[in-house]
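Attaching the record inline, Q. Sequence:
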Amino acid sequence: MATTLHERETLPPKSPLRVFTPLPSVVAMACALTACGLQARTLDSPVVVSVDTMLTYTTNTAYGSGKNGDADFLVLVSPAINFEAQSTRLHLEGKVELDSFSYLQHTQPSRVLPQADIKSNLMLVERLAGVDAALVTRRTTANSFASQGSDLTSSNIYTTTQARISPYIEHEFTPFVSMAARSEVSKTHFEAVGNGVIERPNATSITNTVELVRKPAPVGAGLQYTHDSSGYDNKPRSNLTRDAARGNVSYALSDQWVLGAIGGGEKIQTDFSHRSDGFGGGLLRWRPTERTDLNALAEHHFYGPTWDVSLTHRTPTFAALVRLQRIVESSANSIGELSSGSSLSALLDAMLTTRYPDAVQRAQVVNDAIAGRGLTDSADSVQDYYSLSVDMQQTATVRFAMMGKRNTISVGYTLFKTSPERWAQDPLVSILEQPNHQHAFDIQYNHQLTGSTSFDAIARWSRTTTPGLDRYSVEKSLTAAFNLKLSPKTAATLGGRRQLLDSNVVEKGVNESAVFVGLSHRF
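Structure, as predicted:
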């Protein structure tokens, strides 16, 4: 079911402190994999411990709920640990953080919320078999109309945790022929924090894929079989199962152009519907230079056309991404993100590819650039979507960034549309699901005033509409701050923000003004 502000306001309050309890089965497997790698060799594991503190005075602590509330001082303390370890067979990296919110005048309940992003890869047999594992815990604003700029004053929050384990086999028979098989199990846990936040059921998804590929030289071909199964725990009638077998034939017209045709059959089953049919389509790849890459895939299914088109371009000072996607999806396996590669760090990483070919070294340079310039590594602000039924999801993402000696600018636009698929015959569609349209635009500007001082400004605009219910919400925000590097490991920030919310779902004239001062230190 789609989360709306109106529905959240009618529910009773939840406990003010809700800390996630780990998912036992998947996390245990990930820990076992890590232990196997540690037994192979002692790791050289650099660890960075940091603490961020921020004192904010806000005129409206209830802004995240779409209401006008009281003023208060908010103290945010965020200790974090960044780590990376590498051995012959094991690579482990991640960040674990605890965000402690304290309202000095108790206008909102204080709370502690975890955030974590841990990834590992264990090579079982060199160039043949391995296991990927990941654990991600993120704080997402329950208000689907609010941008991430309102996180610090949001009183309605979901802690969304996803644990994933994925054993795989990959082998190259020749430089042109390869095979791969992968099985992925993912479990998603939702924890609601705040007043009147709708509870979300936990979800499980399983994906099994086997494929055999011959690169076009000049003729290429591929065979693939995929099985997807997703659903919400304790809600057996929410299950969606998809089996698809596809083949493709491609031809390299030149070193730059590859064209191909796709054909196959699929079976989609829910507890209310069963459909089997064939599909067809084509693919296009264009790489005029090593800095520009276009990949396009389009197919026609019984439920209509689908496509996935991405265009990337980079130079040492510029990176751009354009992505168009239309897919049928059950949101059971979602952690609330749209297109990948839309964050500022991803664009900076693309700019630095030529200068720093090693991915690990390049990632450190990107992190230092973001921290040193006082940049905000924000992705698209349209993120919090949720559904119990089968949806057609359509996204368009445009983002570019430019980085000079003293100036950095990032601009992004996202369009996200979702509508329930009537062929699934899910009764939740007619009762709860409605088409949802979201637009978001943001621009970030950073200017290096001196070697240790910078100015950062972020402007955001977003609009969400539900055409079937004549609901709309428009939000605007502007945040500006001065950043001062006090020492190689200590930085301070001073700034303010202004947010405006216009909606026919919540109170009229909801707004917030805030000033903040922060201090961060790396040990």
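The CA atoms of residues 339 and 451 lie 34 Å apart. Helices lie at 5-9, 24-40, 344-351, 359-373, 427-431.

More tomorrow.
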